Each structure stands twice: as structure tokens, then as C-alpha cells.
Amino acid sequence: MTNLGQARLNELVENDSQEKLILALPKGRILQAIRPVMEHAGLIPEDGFFNEKDRRLRFTTNDPMVDIIRVRSFDVATFLAYGAAQMGVAGSDVLMEFDHPDIYAPVDLNTGHCRMVVATQAKTLTEEDPRSWSHVRVATKYPRLTSQYFAARGVQAECIKLNGAMELAPGLGLCRRIVDLVETGSTLEANGLVEVEEIAKITSKLVVNRVAWKTRPEVISNWIKRFREAVDDTQSST
After folding, report:
1. pLDDT confidence band for 7 (50 / 70 / 90)
2. Burial, 172: exposed, middle or buried (Cβ in 10 Å; 0-12, 13-18, 19+)?
3. Is 48 left (phi over 0), alpha (psi -120 to 50) or beta?
4. What burial class does residue 24 get, using C-beta atoms within 10 Å of its C-beta: 0-12 exposed, 13-18 middle, 19+ buried?
5. Model's pTM, two decimal places?
6. Which of 144, 153, 54 is nearest to 95 (CA)?
7. Measuring CA to CA, which residue among 158, 88, 85, 149 is closest to residue 116?
8. Has residue 238 got a pLDDT over 60?
9. How confident is the model at residue 32, as a pLDDT?
10. Rounded to 5 degrees, what are φ and ψ at 221?
11. Mind listing the pLDDT tens digit for each residue in 112-161?
12. Contact status, residue 70 vs residue 25, Cβ threshold 8 Å
């Protein structure tokens, strides 16, 4: 590297180190699940962060150099990938679907446990054997992951992208199958669906932007260490 190039890199590192670290967290049930881990890591958001009625999206913390943004789960990956946030929490489902090279997941937070499954109406299983599928139409929030999964089985998947209410699709004739996340399976059962097969087990991960880690290695490595120790502490106390 030339002296000019090294000087420019040093300038970028210095400027970046003076900016706040942005931690992107997903809205919804994951917020409460990761709260004990955050507390053990020593990161306390300002009042209102865990209040769903608070309409703000950016919050300060007890660390003057760390702010938290509250966004949709898939948007966590987008903010991380394009450098608008340097750290975040994302489910492994989001990471597999997004699959961006600039996102690294160094810590499994051991929260947000669920499974990604293929499901259909019970009557469908009486009419056909899943092992005989060659072409399927599937409603899902994960078209990329779904296509890859079925392709590995030699099945062509036509994916219909839905962001919610997947369980309605088979009953209304949109498709016969869905790929979605389940915790207990009660929602599937309530909508007349049964699980066919499991695609993956899902947990929440601490994620970092690779470029930010290179330009701010000490501060981000420190937070990775603190979150990893916090996971160990919360596991040992349960």
C-alpha cells in the first residue's frame, strides 16, 4: 500500500472511531428475549426502548458511544450490509435468506428458538407422497432459501412471496404448501396445517459489519466478547 493509501485508511479509521456505534435490533418478540443478554453485557437502553407503544426508532444507551435502532427483522440485515449499522441481532433465518458477504455472525445468542418447516393441509398428505414431488408452489417469506432447499432435493419450487399470514394460503387455494417459522406448531394446527419436514433450526445471532470490524476492531471485538460472556452467564444461571 502506498503512503497516500495508508494515510487515507488511517483517516477513515480515525473518523469512524469518533462516530457512534449503531446496534440494530429487530422489533417484536426477540426484543424481550435478548433483554437479559443485553443487561449481562452491560448495555442498557434508555427508558422506552422495550415499550412497544414508544414510536421512536432510535434510542440512546448507558454507553454514550452506542445507540440502538429498532427495525424490522429483515431490515437488520440491510442496515448491517450497507454500513448504516455496525452491529445487530438477526435470526439465522434472516441471515440465510439474505446471505450477504459483509455480514458476520460471531455469537449465537441462544434465544429466539424456533424451526423453519414445510407445512401443508393434512388432506394433501393423503393424496400425495412428499417424496414424489417434482414441482411445488410454495408461499413463504423466504423465497431464496426455499428454492435452494427444494432444488437440493431435485424439486422445482415456484415461490410466492408473502410477508405474513402464510397459513391462509393453502385454504384459499393460493398454493398447497408453505415454508414458515414455527415455535410450538399451534398456529399451524389452528389453521388446519401439519408439518411435513424441517428445513432448519433457528436462533438469534449477534451480527457485525465486516468493514466496521476492520476499521474499529477494538471496540467491536470488545462488544463481541461482552455478548459472548453474557450468553455464557445467562445459560449458567438458568
Report:
1. low
2. exposed
3. left
4. buried
5. 0.86
6. 144
7. 149
8. no
9. 87
10. -60, -35
11. 999 999 999 999 988 888 888 999 999 999 999 999 999 999 999 999 99
12. yes
Burial of 64 (0-12, 13-18, 19+ CB in 10 A): exposed
Q: What letter represents residue 81's amino acid?
A: A
* pLDDT tens track for 70-120: 999 999 999 999 999 999 999 999 999 999 999 999 999 999 999 999 999
Does residue 220 contact residue 86 with C-beta atoms inside 8 Å? yes
* Domains, in order of start, for the chain: 3-112+203-236 (3.40.190.10), 114-202 (3.40.190.10)
Residue 198, beta-bridge partner list:
117
Residue 99 Ramachandran class (φ > 0 left, ψ -120 to 50 alpha, else beta): left
pLDDT given at position 23 = 98
From 104, 150, 108, select the one nearest 131 (Cα to Cα). 150
| Residue pair 143/161 in contact by the 8 Å Cβ criterion | yes
Burial class (CB in 10 A: 0-12, 13-18, 19+), 150: buried
How far, CA to CA in Å, does 39 sit from each of 34, 87, 167, 227?
Answer: 9, 16, 36, 10
Residue 169's H or E segment, with its range, is: helix 168-171
38: buried, middle or exposed (CB in 10 Å: 19+, 13-18, 0-12)?
buried
CB 43 within 8 A of CB 222: no
Which helix (H) or strand (E) segment is 142 a member of? none
Written as nine digits, the cell of 144 is 431464496
